[in-house]
């Protein structure tokens, strides 16, 4: 089992920055990929970015790839999402997710952290 806890969300003005953190605990040695998803008001949950736990190779969805950066620190069991030049449409609940090496699906999820971008 892996437990995930997000932090770092909040209220920010458009054009500002936030860094989300996700602390992983438990069987982190089994992790294959970690990721961030988001659910905007009235929309389905959507993929934002992922990172290979072992290699650090990132993947970021096209719509935010020039503004968001994903990273991880294996020694601390942490992954991060640096979000710059935030826009109103980035308002969402952001979820940390993890996929173990024995499962193709993201079956570990955090509770989510709210990011609200205001004018």
Q: Could you tell me the strand content as a percent range?
A: over 45%
Largest sheet: 7 strands, mixed
The H-and-E topology, N to C, reads as EEEEEEEEEEE
The radius of gyration over CA amounts to: 13 Å
> How many strands?
11
Class derived from helix and strand content: mainly beta
Write the layout of secondary structure elements.
Layout: E1 2-7, E2 10-13, E3 18-26, E4 31-39, E5 45-52, E6 58-60, E7 68-73, E8 78-83, E9 92-100, E10 108-109, E11 113-118
Parallel strand pairs: 2-11
Antiparallel strand pairs: 1-3, 3-8, 4-5, 4-9, 5-6, 7-8, 9-10, 9-11
Account of the 3D structure:
- The chain is mainly beta and 119 residues long.
- The protein is built from no helices and 11 strands.
- The strands form 2 sheets. Strands 2, 4, 5, 6, 9, 10 and 11 form a 7-stranded mixed β-sheet that branches.
Produce a short descriptive summary.
With 119 residues, the chain is mainly beta.
Keywords:
119 residues; mainly beta; 7-stranded mixed β-sheet; 0% helix
